[in-house]
Amino acid sequence: LWLGWAALGLRPDASFEKMIPVHHPAIANYLTHEDNLRGLSNVVRVVVENRKGDIFDPAFQEVLRKVNDEVFYIPGVDRAGMRSLWTPNVMWGEVTAEGFEAGPVIPDGYDGSPQAITQLRSNVFRSGEVGTLVANDLRSALVLVPLMERDPDTGQRLDYGRFATDLEEKIRARYENEGVSIRIVGFAKVIGELIDGALPILGYFLLTLVLTAALLLWYSRCLRSTLTTLACCLIAVVWQLGIVRLLGFGLDPYSILVPFLTFAIGISHAVQNINTTANAVLDGADKVEAARRSFRTLFVAGTVALLCDAVGFATLLVIRIGVIQELAISASIGVAVIIFSKMFLLPVLMSWTGVSPAAVRHARRRRAHLPWLWQQVARCAQPRPALVVTLAGAALLALGHWGARDLQIGDLDPGAPELRTDSRYNRDAAYLVEHYATSTDVFVVMAETPPQGCRDYQVLAGMDLLAAELERIPGVQRTMSMSDFAYRVLAANNEGNLKWHAISRNKYALGGAFQKTPKEYIGNGCAMTPFVVYLNDHKAATLSALMGTVRDFAARHDSDKVRFTLVGGNAGIEAATNEVIRDADHTMLMLVYAIVALLLLLEFRSLRVTLCIVLPLYITSVLGEAIMAWMGLGVKVATLPVIALGVGIGVDYGIYIYNRLQSYLDHGHPLAEAYLLTVSTTGRAVAFTGLTLAVGVLTWIGSAIKFQADMGLLLTFMFLWNMVGALVLLPALARLLLPATKIASNPTTKEKMP
């Protein structure tokens, strides 16, 4: 009740800082200059489109003004950095016979008259904002909205869910109509879409609960044990959510799947309790003794399996990205509470409830008759089938490695790959790419200089050279930096003479160009000048090429006057995140397998047994990576945890199978006979568990959030394939790897076992 009350305080939670690796040197550079780069990184773009004409329409301009003013007052907006045709920091400029003239794009005294519209048209073309704040076809204009991660007065973190809702309610719902279309893109809007898509997750959880209950009832033929099991698993979920809330965490769009996993793991272990208790009653035990036998039989194996689960989740902590570390902590807490709810609470409850006579009769029928399919599965422990199965496993491993060679780090699709391709957000993002010269994917290189050193010729010439190299990279739209304004202003100050369209070595001439360069391209104190790269997309290959090119350029051109450092912009931050994931990917997998293997060695005291259990898991991991490559999924924040989750949960099957197999071997049964007995009891329960878990996560494919649907498919594959590996490959490896004295019969010690 206490933890349930605490769990009620959970709220959707998301943060820009939690999504990025703050320890990465490039991200540390960004955080150092965050105030200067905010307008190029965490930005929302609100596009207002005139469906019936162009932007030079008084009614449209009135809507654009209202949208600008409405956005200005939404909490979390960096108001000083906002840019649109209606903000005073957007200027036009030109050189006339009288000299250099400039002014705000919206003319003074604008009243919507034909004369004012004519003046506005002239100002827009002179401003150079066509393609940036105004669409190339002149049918839409945007409001550029930089965000503050924390409120400067209260220190409270920005509520992205609330902010995204404000955009929908105060902007899109209020101003979109037959004549005007509103499009909104940016990190905050993606998070808002993920939170909105995650809210219906309760419906999927209820569907999973109903399906699991139906399958449990069908498997056990016992309503009381089904309800008891579901109650224990739900209690574990409540405990997990309550503890997470007490630790100060929320539910971000990535960790919202953890309660599913907690419930699924609980069910996978509880099925063994139902199976063992029913068989104990069949052998004549009363309900208290049956519960005791279940506890004695399963406690050690189940605890080791759950510790392996916890290890699989905890290894995610090596990835120093906030959302992944919170997911690791939340999932580890879920496993910890399952140890209490399943290992202790469930046997106690079943000592009161017992199992129904129908469950006992069903257990008797299962023991008396082993279907043909299970007989074939049991043959995997015989010499010739074992060799065939092992060779097939080796072939699948080779196939998996071949398929996984195309697996990439990062996003492989434009827009927001976490959302459906036809989602409103991705349609809005595609519109911006098509109609604007500057996309939403921005990569920033920082030119760091001594104070007031950005006006030096060597700095601007270096930017010019960097632009020439970066613009040759496929996927780069254009670059923009202070050197571009130097070209433009120096030529304009000299009557547009092409001889002056160059970067002057005269510091006074450069000083004039400096005065007319927008503030966002200078930075405070002229000690850090952003070099902005606009991209067609944020695909992994594009970002990797940019990072490599900039590092190589910096190695050749850095000096005491200028250092070219990484990285800013939303695409630049994603590039740094990709590097962290690339470095941590194999480290995490090696760590999870090493610790799982160590726990198995401590449990079974045999390297050969450890290999029998771990090798099927490794094949599943490799095949999972091949499936990701085939589905077009990259390894990123949303997908990286899946492999660790698959290993952690999959090892349960092998532990339960081999634990029961070893008990029969210890009583003198030869391997083939021992595995036949194992299949008829624990093997069936493992198969049922795998199917139940797969059905539970398969419901995710209906989610509006694409990455949740993809995770559902991946986990379904991993649950099923881990189950097949434990039932088929594990006994085959045991036949080939275990010593002959272990797998042969021993008549002097052979005992009858149920």
Produce the secondary structure layout.
Elements: H1 2-7, H2 25-32, H3 34-37, E1 43-50, H4 58-72, E2 91-96, E3 99-104, H5 114-127, E4 140-146, H6 160-175, E5 180-186, H7 187-198, H8 201-220, H9 223-246, H10 258-282, H11 287-314, H12 322-353, H13 357-368, H14 372-378, H15 383-404, H16 424-435, E6 441-448, H17 457-470, E7 476-480, H18 482-492, H19 507-515, E8 528-535, H20 540-557, E9 563-568, H21 569-604, H22 607-631, H23 640-666, H24 671-698, H25 706-737, H26 740-743
Antiparallel strand pairs: 1-4, 1-5, 2-3, 6-8, 6-9, 7-8
Helix pairs in contact: 4-6, 6-7, 8-9, 8-10, 8-24, 9-10, 9-12, 10-11, 10-12, 10-13, 10-24, 11-12, 11-21, 11-23, 14-24, 15-22, 15-25, 17-18, 17-20, 18-19, 20-21, 21-22, 21-23, 22-23, 22-25, 23-24, 23-25, 24-25
Number of strands: 9
Gyration radius, to the nearest Å?
Answer: 32 Å
3D shape = elongated
What portion of residues belong to β-strands?
5-15%
Strand order of the largest sheet: 7-8-6-9
Instruction: Estimate the mean pLDDT confidence.
Output: 84
Alpha-beta content class:
alpha+beta
Structure write-up:
By secondary structure, the chain is of the alpha+beta class. Helices cover 61% and strands 8% of the residues. It is built from 26 helices and 9 strands. It has helices spanning 2-7, 25-32, 34-37, 58-72, 114-127, 160-175, 187-198, 201-220, 223-246, 258-282, 287-314, 322-353, 357-368, 372-378, 383-404, 424-435, 457-470, 482-492, 507-515, 540-557, 569-604, 607-631, 640-666, 671-698, 706-737, 740-743; strands at residues 43-50, 91-96, 99-104, 140-146, 180-186, 441-448, 476-480, 528-535, 563-568. The strands form 3 sheets. A 4-stranded antiparallel β-sheet has the order 7-8-6-9. Strand 2 and strand 3 (99-104) form a beta hairpin. Helix 23 packs antiparallel against helix 24 and helix 24 (671-698) packs antiparallel against helix 25. The protein is elongated and about 105 Å long. The two termini are 40 Å apart. Mean pLDDT is 84; it is low at 747-754.
